[in-house]
Structures are given as C-alpha cells and as structure tokens.
Amino acid sequence: MTSKNRYKFSFGDKPLTLTTDKDNLFMEEVERVAKEKYEAIKEKLPQADNETIAILMAINSLSTQLSREIEFEKTEKELTELRTKTIVGIQKRAGQSQGGGEER
C-alpha cells in the first residue's frame, strides 16, 4: 500500500492541504510551478480573481497535457512502424542467407 503525504501550501491567499503519494521535494516543485503560473496570469489579467486564475491554470495544464499525449501517441506510432520495418528487413536478410543461394 502506498503511503500518503499531506502537503500544505498557499494558492493566492488560500491555504491548501493536498493528500498525495508524491514526496515533499516533488510537491515543492509543483508549488513553485503553480506560483510561477499564477503570477504570470495575474500579471496579464490583474483584474482576475483567484478562482478565475485557477480555472485558467487548469485549462492551460489540460491543454499542455493533451498536446503531449497526442505527440506521445504520434511518437509511439512512428516507433512501432520503425520496429516493424526493422523486423521485416531482418527477416528478409535471414531468408536470403538461409535459402537464397544459387543451385548448382
């Protein structure tokens, strides 16, 4: 069973406690990135409230995740095609060396 970690930090002016299976070092990095993204949006939209900023951050994160998943699937497909071509090439060479010689 995975142990759970309770990690506390603030988002905007709201204190939060997250229950996670990640360690504090990882969560500190998540917190740093969240605060960085928060500040970037707050700078561009100073009138936005914390809820709006959180929603925008979530949508941006989902957009990034979806883009990466699409790219990963594309890379996986390319890798599968390359493996198939390689295997077919090896099988052809093996077939030629086993019985492809000339008869006398």
Describe this structure in words.
With 104 residues, the protein is an alpha+beta fold. The protein is 68% helix and 13% strand. It is built from 2 helices and 2 strands. A two-stranded antiparallel ribbon has the order 1-2. This is Cell division protein ZapA. It comes from Streptococcus pantholopis.
Please tag this protein with its features:
2 helices; Cell division protein ZapA; Cell_div_ZapA-like_sf; two-stranded antiparallel ribbon; alpha+beta; 2 strands; elongated; Cell_div_ZapA-like
> What distance separates the N and C termini?
69 Å
Write down the domain tally: 1
How do the SSEs run, as a string of H and E? EEHH
**Number of helices, where a helix is a run of at least 4 consecutive DSSP H or I residues:** 2
Question: How many β-strand stretches?
Answer: 2
Largest sheet: 2 strands, antiparallel
Regions with little confidence, pLDDT below 50 for 5+ residues? none
Residue-averaged pLDDT, rounded?
90
Find the structural class using helix and strand composition.
alpha+beta
* Proportion of residues in β-strands: 5-15%
- Which geometry do the CA atoms define? elongated
Cα-atom Rg, whole angstroms?
Answer: 26 Å
For the biggest β-sheet, the strand order reads 1-2
Helix proportion: 55-70%
